[in-house]
Amino acid sequence: MSAIDRIQAQLASHPVVLYMKGTPDFPQCGFSSRVVQVLRACNADYAHINIFEDPEVREALKEYSHWPTYPQLYINGELIGGCDIVIDLFNKGELDNMLASVGSKL
Fold this sequence. Notes:
Elements: H1 3-13, E1 16-20, H2 30-41, E2 47-50, H3 55-65, E3 72-75, E4 78-81, H4 83-92, H5 94-101
Parallel strand pairs: 1-2
Antiparallel strand pairs: 1-3, 3-4
Family: Belongs to the glutaredoxin family. Monothiol subfamily.
Keywords: 2Fe-2S, Iron, Iron-sulfur, Metal-binding, Redox-active center
Protein name: Glutaredoxin
C-alpha cells in the first residue's frame, strides 16, 4: 500500500484526523501542542497520526494536502488547516460546530 493509499484509508476511517508531531500526550512541537489543547477544549474525539513514525506518510501528506507544514487537521477527509487556522476557527466558535456536525464530540 502506498503512502497516499494509507493517508486515504486513515481519513476514511475517522471523521477527524490530526497529523501531528508526536502524540496528544507527548506533542513534539509547540504548534501540535496548541492544536491538541484546542481539540481538548472542544471535547473532540479524534484520531492522531504521529508523522515521525511514518516518514513516507510525512512526505506524501505534503503532496496530498498541498500544505507544507504540520500539524494538519482534517474533518470528513477535508483539510481544515494548521495551527493558526484551527485556533482562529476555535476562537470564532466555528470549530466546535464543525466537530459536532460529524459527531466527534465526547
